[in-house]
């Protein structure tokens, strides 16, 4: 175990460096509220890929894939996890290009759903998106706190407060512009550090030959690509991650931040390509820890840390501290800004013609509120796994009807809402987490099937997709997708005269920015 | 189907190599982007 003071010193140094970079980069730009929440058309291919990699790869990569490998089904489960993590990125190549075509001035997923469907579906999607992102934020904070407690005995509230505080400084100041820039730097450190760490662990555990031999003789099912529980786990993870990713505002922001469609396509493709081997490697180390009998009393969620502790000298654990801090920082800034941006984009519609400065203040104030809430929850060390699974199920039951309207003018609000709710009901009927409570319900309790994640998630996605398609076929309506562009406009355009007597924000470049 | 020793080694080292290749590609893309931005800024100074 590393000394607590040393680990804290490294943590603060890494966070201070990121904060300085984020603030310095933002200071060089005149930030309008558009820059703050959308950074529209600003990220080339490399930047788009880098920000997607960093913002998507949280501290969970050190826990979940290894846990899947060690605890849920070996290589088959890890493979499912890797594919499941890449599928949403591939999906967003098509979805993203359509979004940019129909919502050239868009900012958020809620703008799309309000313009395309209406207030009821908007409310439902907003609930899922904010719930999912806040749970992700809390889970990331908790994972980082757990990791630093495991390797250096750092009290969880200190980890949560330090990470949340530093990230708040640069995200509150520079918004999405700062987030994308620091993501790029973080990717350039995270990718080689993760790769070198994984390679060193493999060598430290005796090389692939010794690891394979030990697993094959002790737990051969971990190497079985046809292991049914592993395949079932992998299958449900694909649906769960894809469904919930659609409601991650951070992804939508990066769709609009890409410089053009080519940058979007290539950036998302590069991020998808690198995600698969990264998850495979993290999962393989979990498989190795379980196969080599290293786990002892430790739970599968810390399998990767067990492998690292067994293979590397103590000082190398400091590299893990740096990794944990960078991984959680990159997702935390994305989620801080993502949640704040959803509300800010909607404020322009809810408030009566707000000026740009009002929206800027609102965006920053919301970022502070989200950060304080995340720190408070992260410091408690709650297990949010069950809530995370529920958020995944909500996403799985809704994402196909939600996106259907982007491809079909026949999809109606009533149809997609009905399909989503029906999918959720089917998913909940099979959902193992709440199964114990649900079977106790009068009348319906005895009719419920047995709990199974794959049935729950596949049922939710399948039923909602079928009903959404059926409702669209029965519908007489024809929504003109081209009319969406008129529903959403630049937030800079909404500004009237600014409070200091200046000109409206759309009069020129100088008035679009708020100099700080 | 149980993964053999060679396939296991290929999976591990192949994954590491794949990440390294993508990282190198990403560096090239970022360098190109930075150069384009610099050129564009220099152009704007010459022709404001």
Q: How would you concisely characterize the structure shown here?
A:
Chain A is mainly alpha-helical and 516 residues long. Chain A has 20 helices and no strands. Chain A: One of its GO terms (cellular component) is plasma membrane.
Can you describe this structure?
- The complex is a heterodimer of chains A (516) and B (48).
- In chain A, helix 3 (45-56) crosses helix 13 (317-350), helix 7 packs across helix 12 and helix 7 crosses helix 14 (356-380).
- The longest helix of chain A has 49 residues, at 156-204.
- Chain A has 516 residues and is mainly alpha-helical.
- Chain A is globular.
- In chain A, 75% of the residues lie in helices and 0% in strands.
- With 48 residues, chain B is mostly helical.
- The longest helix of chain B is centred in the middle third of the chain and has 42 residues, at 5-46.
- Chain B is rod-shaped, with a radius of gyration of 21 Å.
- Chains A and B meet through helix 3, helix 7, helix 8 and helix 11 of A and helix 1 of B.
């Amino acid at each position: 175990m590393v000394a607590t003071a040393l680990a804290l010193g490294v943590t603060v140094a890494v966070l201070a460096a990121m904060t300085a970079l984020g603030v310095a980069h933002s200071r060089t730009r005149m930030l309008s509220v558009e820059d703050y929440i959308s950074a529209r058309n600003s990220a080339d291919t490399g930047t788009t890929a880098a920000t997607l990699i960093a913002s998507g790869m949280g501290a969970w990569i050190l826990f979940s894939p290894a846990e899947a490998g060690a605890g849920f089904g070996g290589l088959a489960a890890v493979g499912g996890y890797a594919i499941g993590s890449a599928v949403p990125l591939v999906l967003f190549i098509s979805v993203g290009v359509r979004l940019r075509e129909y919502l050239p001035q868009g900012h958020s997923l809620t703008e799309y759903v309000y313009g395309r469907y209406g207030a009821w579906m908007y409310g439902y999607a907003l609930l899922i998106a904010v719930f999912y992102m806040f749970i992700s934020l809390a889970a990331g904070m908790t994972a980082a706190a757990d990791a630093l407690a495991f390797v250096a005995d750092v009290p969880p509230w200190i980890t949560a407060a330090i990470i949340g505080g530093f990230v708040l400084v640069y995200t509150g100041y520079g918004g999405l512009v700062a987030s994308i820039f620091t993501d790029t730097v973080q990717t350039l450190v995270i990718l080689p550090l993760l790769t070198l760490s994984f390679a060193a662990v493999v060598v430290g555990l005796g090389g692939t030959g010794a690891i394979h031999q030990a697993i094959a003789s002790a737990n051969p099912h971990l190497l079985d690509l046809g292991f049914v529980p592993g395949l079932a786990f992998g299958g449900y993870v694909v649906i769960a991650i894809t469904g919930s990713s659609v409601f991650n505002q951070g992804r939508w922001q990066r769709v609009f931040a890409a410089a053009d469609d080519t940058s979007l396509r290539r950036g998302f493709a590069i991020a998808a390509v690198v995600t698969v081997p990264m998850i495979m490697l993290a999962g393989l180390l979990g498989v190795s820890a379980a196969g080599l009998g290293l786990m002892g009393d430790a739970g599968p969620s810390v399998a990767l840390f067990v492998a690292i502790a067994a293979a590397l000298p103590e000082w190398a654990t400091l590299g893990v501290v740096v990794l944990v801090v960078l991984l959680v920082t990159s997702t935390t800034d994305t989620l801080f800004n993502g949640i704040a941006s959803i509300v800010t984009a909607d404020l322009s519609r809810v408030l009566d013609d707000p000026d740009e400065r009002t929206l800027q203040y609102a965006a920053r104030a919301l970022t502070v509120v989200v950060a304080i809430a995340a720190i408070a929850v992260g410091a408690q060390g709650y297990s949010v796994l069950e809530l995370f699974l529920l958020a995944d199920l909500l996403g799985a039951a809704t994402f196909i009807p939600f996106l259907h309207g982007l491809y079909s003018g026949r999809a109606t609000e009533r149809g997609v809402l009905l399909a989503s709710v029906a999918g959720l009901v089917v998913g909940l009927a099979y959902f193992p987490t709440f199964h114990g409570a649900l079977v106790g319900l009068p009348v319906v309790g005895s009719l419920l099937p047995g709990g199974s994640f794959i049935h729950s998630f596949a049922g939710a996605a399948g039923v909602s997709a079928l009903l959404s398609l059926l409702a669209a076929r029965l519908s007489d309506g024809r929504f003109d997708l081209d009319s969406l562009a008129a529903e959403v406009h630049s937030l800079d355009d909404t500004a009237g005269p600014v409070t200091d007597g200046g000109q409206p924000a759309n009069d020129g470049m100088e008035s679009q920015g708020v100099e700080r | 189907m149980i993964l053999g020793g060679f396939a296991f080694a290929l999976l591990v080292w192949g994954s590491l190599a794949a990440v390294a290749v993508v990282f190198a590609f990403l560096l090239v893309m970022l360098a190109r982007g930075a150069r384009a931005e610099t050129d564009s800024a220099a152009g704007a100074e010459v022709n404001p």
